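Archive maintenance. Older records in this collection stored only the sequence; we are now back-filling the structure field for every entry so that each record is complete. The fields below show one back-filled record exactly as it appears after the update. Entries are processed alphabetically, and Methyltransferase-like protein 5 is next in the queue.

ARCHIVE ENTRY
Title: Methyltransferase-like protein 5
Organism field: Dinoponera quadriceps
Length field: 211
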Amino acid sequence: MAALRLRQLEEYLQQLEVFEKPKVLLEQYATSAHIASHMLYTAQSQFNDIEGKSVADLGSGCGVLSLGAKMLGAGYVVGFEIDSDAVDIHSGNCDDIELHVEIVQCDILQCLPGKFEGRFDTVVMNPPFGTKRNAGVDMRFLETAIRLSGNAVYSLHKSSTRDYVLSRAAQLDAKGTVVAELRYDLPRAYRFHRKASVDIEVDFIRFETNR
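Back-filled structure field:
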C-alpha cells in the first residue's frame, strides 16, 4: 500500500516550484504533478518498488519525482542532475516542504554508474526524448538506469519508439513492460514552439532488472 492516496500525492507535487526559464539544449520540461504522481503511485501500489527502497532519479530537474518518492516512504533518495539552476530549484523545494533527498550535480552520462552500479533498488526518470541535437540520449539514459538498478526502472518514452526501446532493453538484460499509455501535454516553453501546447503519445514503461 502507498503511504499517501494518489490525490494527496498529486496535490503535494503541485506545490513544487518548476523551471521558469527551461534550457532547450537540455530538453528541460517539468514532469507534471499529474504524471509524476501516477508513475510513483503505480510503482508503489502495484509493485511495491518505492516504500522503504533506495531510489535514484536520473535527470531529476526540480525534484518532482525525487520528492514524490520520498513522500511515498522511500528509504533513501538521490537525484542526479546536470544543471545548477535546476539543482537550486530542487534544493529550494526540499526546504519548502521540509523533506530531504540527496542531490548530486553531475552529467550522468559521464559520471555514472561508477560506484553506484547496482546500488539502487529502483530508478525513476523522465529522460530527454532525444529531439533536436540530442538524438539517442534517451537510450543512453536508459542504459545508465538499468546499470544502476538492482530491481526496476520506471521511465517515460515516446510511444513511436516503443519497439526499439523494448528491444534495446532486452539487449541490456532488462524486461520492459508498458504499464500505461499516456498523453504528455507539452506546454509552450520555447520560442520555436508555435502552439500553446502539444500532446505527445508517451509510454510509461517498467523495466525489470533483477540483478
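Update note: Helices lie at 6-13, 33-45, 64-71, 84-97, 108-111, 137-148, 162-171. The beta strands are 54-58, 76-81, 102-105, 120-125, 149-158, 175-187, 197-208.
Entry marked complete.
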